[in-house]
């Protein structure tokens, strides 16, 4: 999984869609600064943390650092999307200059740097003296051949330009920035990477093959000049100040070049160095460049190929290219392109230059036959590679077919990781059912009778409850009052009137009560003196009249009062869902 950090803050992480860059691509190349380009949306949480030439940009694959550098340029397009370009840490050497100084054995310094390795270290020390800690290098591994230097002068050249011209171009090797325990090391090594055990095979993981035949560097005669600018080879070469290769002259004609040898001051030594150099000048360079798929992207158990690795390339059809175990026949990974968004597009470029071996043949005709034979072999390799590319494409088609069976268009992919399935399944995917639950289709229910039908609310909406017309019935019933006594007691003077019916008829031991005190009756006024009480007893039962019938009919609806909606969320757990659309 790829991640991108800016000063420790996340710029790209496929597990979070808010922290994703657009089109992030890393391009690495031997003895180049390297590049990292990407686009960033204005809504990105860390869009404002990128500071040109200052921020530290890092690209990781899991825990492995693939790129480290700084933001160089940015631009904003019509959609306000930022386009950012970054350069690798070797570009720090562009920020310093080499003050006027003379190195070598002719220098007047007491502790002089008089070989290429010591001078290289001195150049880096001068760079560090001008830079802050964030752009300094610690000298790491240096295993190039040590060569004595008579004189080498600097005159305010940019450090990178001076090293590129006077070291990388003369002393074969590769500059490599390496991080260990928080220290930035600068190595100068013959072999940049490891010897890979992954094999690039025709018909398996080879995508393309190109052949380049270059003759512009051929020289058939050279004029060697010593380090002091005066010494030549005339005294050691029969009076001639030049040497030539007759076979190459017969094939290509006379092509001269003056060659300086700063370390040679003796004519015989100068002649020997010139003869060795001439051998490399007459060789016709046939370069084969391969483009292949890193099988580590398919099978994590296969070691990943990295920049500078030596990789065997095998053709079983004709035995061309690498011999297993012979590292001299392996191919060097000179370029590595990484697509963080679509790792399937990662591309590695391997190259190897085959010499025409003119120094090992007896005559022009034999040389021509070898060159033509090699060209024929390379053409065969090209044809084989084309067939291999077709095979690889067929494998891709078959793999896509398997994926299409497992995840056809319309499939729903569920995961707790927010990674677009297109990055590992291919195809086109969109996020699905965000903020919604999933219900199976049921043609018998109107709400669920079609696929991808959406509805429902997470809150209970405002509404009214209805009540049908109805009757309350009250059955006939009797109220009974039990026997009881009423006691009247009062204080103070008051009157009571007693009426007697003269016509009353005795009925047993009682008289009928008087009905009218005003007619046919005599009344007596009681004495009012003193506090006293009167008691009246009653007995018997009292029955209320019968009540029958029904209460009136009640009709109408109830209403709801108050504002807002009631919560209706069921227990839930969230996941990422993606739907394949193509």
Radius of gyration: 52 Å
CATH architecture label name of the domain at 95-192: 3-Layer(bab) Sandwich
Supply the CATH class of the domain at 95-192.
Answer: Alpha Beta
Structural class: alpha+beta
What gap, in angstroms, lies between the N and C termini?
A: 24 Å
Proportion of residues in extended strands: 25-35%
Number of helices: 6
Fraction of residues in H or I helices: 10-25%
Which regions have little confidence, pLDDT < 50, spanning 5+ residues?
Answer: 357-378, 506-525, 535-552
- Major sheet characteristics: 12 strands, antiparallel
Could you tell me the CATH topology label of the domain at 95-192. Answer: Phage tail protein beta-alpha-beta fold
Question: Which shape, going by the Cα principal axes?
Answer: elongated
The residue-averaged pLDDT reads 77
How many beta strands in the DSSP annotation? Answer: 37
Write a brief caption for the model.
The protein is of the alpha+beta class and 582 residues long. The protein is 16% helix and 30% strand.
How does this structure look, described?
The protein has 582 residues and is of the alpha+beta class. Among the domains are: 2-89, Baseplate protein-like domain - beta roll fold (Phage tail proteins - horseshoe like beta roll fold), CATH 2.30.300; 95-192, 3-Layer(bab) Sandwich (Phage tail protein beta-alpha-beta fold); 221-281, no CATH class; 407-457 and 570-582, no CATH class. The strands form 12 sheets. Strands 1, 2, 3, 4, 5, 6, 7, 16, 20, 21, 23 and 24 form a 12-stranded antiparallel β-sheet that branches. It is elongated. The two termini are 24 Å apart. Residues 357-378, 506-525 and 535-552 have low confidence and may be disordered.
């Amino acid at each position: 999984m790829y991640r991108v950090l800016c000063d420790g803050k996340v710029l790209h992480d496929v597990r979070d869609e808010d922290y994703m860059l657009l089109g992030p691509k890393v391009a690495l190349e031997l003895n180049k600064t390297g590049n990292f380009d990407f686009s960033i949306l204005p809504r990105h949480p860390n869009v404002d943390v990128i500071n040109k030439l200052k921020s530290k940009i890092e690209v990781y694959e899991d825990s492995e650092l693939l790129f480290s550098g700084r933001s160089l340029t940015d631009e904003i397009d019509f959609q306000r999307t930022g386009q950012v370009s970054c350069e690798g840490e070797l570009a720090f050497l562009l920020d310093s200059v080499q003050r006027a100084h003379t190195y070598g054995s002719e220098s007047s310094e007491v502790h002089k740097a008089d070989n290429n390795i010591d001078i290289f270290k001195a150049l880096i020390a001068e760079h560090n003296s001008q830079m802050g800690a964030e752009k300094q290098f610690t000298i790491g591994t240096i295993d190039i051949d040590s060569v004595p230097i008579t004189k080498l002068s600097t005159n305010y050249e940019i450090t990178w330009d001076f090293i590129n011209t006077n070291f990388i171009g003369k002393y074969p090797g590769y500059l490599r920035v390496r991080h260990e325990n928080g220290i930035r090391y600068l190595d100068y090594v013959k072999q940049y990477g490891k010897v890979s055990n992954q094999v690039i095979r025709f018909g398996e993981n080879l995508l393309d093959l190109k052949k380049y035949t270059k003759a512009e560097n051929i020289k058939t005669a050279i004029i060697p000049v010593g380090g002091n600018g005066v010494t030549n080879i005339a005294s050691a070469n029969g009076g001639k100040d030049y040497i030539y290769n007759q076979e190459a002259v017969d094939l290509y004609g006379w092509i001269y070049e003056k060659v300086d040898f700063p370390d040679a001051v003796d004519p015989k030594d100068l002649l020997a160095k010139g003869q060795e150099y001439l051998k490399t000048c007459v060789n016709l360079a046939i370069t084969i460049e391969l483009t292949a798929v890193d099988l580590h992207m398919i099978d994590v158990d296969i070691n990943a190929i990295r920049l500078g690795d030596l990789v065997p390339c095998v053709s079983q059809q004709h035995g061309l290219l690498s011999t297993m175990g012979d590292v001299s026949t392996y191919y060097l990974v000179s370029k590595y392109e990484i697509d963080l968004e679509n790792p399937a597009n990662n591309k590695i470029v391997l190259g190897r230059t085959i010499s025409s071996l003119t120094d090992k043949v007896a005559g022009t005709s034999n040389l021509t036959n070898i060159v033509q034979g090699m060209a024929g072999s390379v053409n065969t390799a090209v044809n084989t590679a084309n067939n291999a590319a077709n095979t690889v494409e067929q494998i891709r088609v078959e793999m896509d077919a398997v994926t299409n069976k497992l995840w056809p268009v319309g499939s729903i992919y569920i995961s707790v990781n927010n990674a677009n399935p297109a990055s590992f399944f291919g195809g086109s995917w969109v996020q699905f059912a965000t903020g919604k639950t999933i219900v199976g289709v049921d043609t018998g229910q109107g709400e669920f009778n079609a696929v991808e039908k959406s509805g429902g609310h997470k809150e209970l909406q405002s509404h009214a409850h209805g009540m049908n017309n109805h009757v309350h019935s009250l059955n006939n019933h009797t109220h009974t009052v039990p026997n009881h006594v009423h006691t009247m007691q009062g204080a103070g003077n008051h009157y009571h009137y007693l009426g007697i019916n003269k016509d009353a008829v005795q009925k047993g031991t009682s008289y009928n009560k008087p009905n009218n005190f005003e007619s046919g009756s005599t009344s007596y006024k009681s004495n009012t003196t003193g506090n006293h009480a009167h008691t009246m007893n009653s007995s018997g039962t009292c029955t209320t009249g019968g009540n029958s019938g029904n209460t009136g009919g009640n009709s109408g609806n109830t209403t709801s009062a108050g504002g807002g909606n009631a919560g209706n969320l069921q227990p839930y757990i969230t996941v990422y869902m993606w739907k394949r659309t193509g």
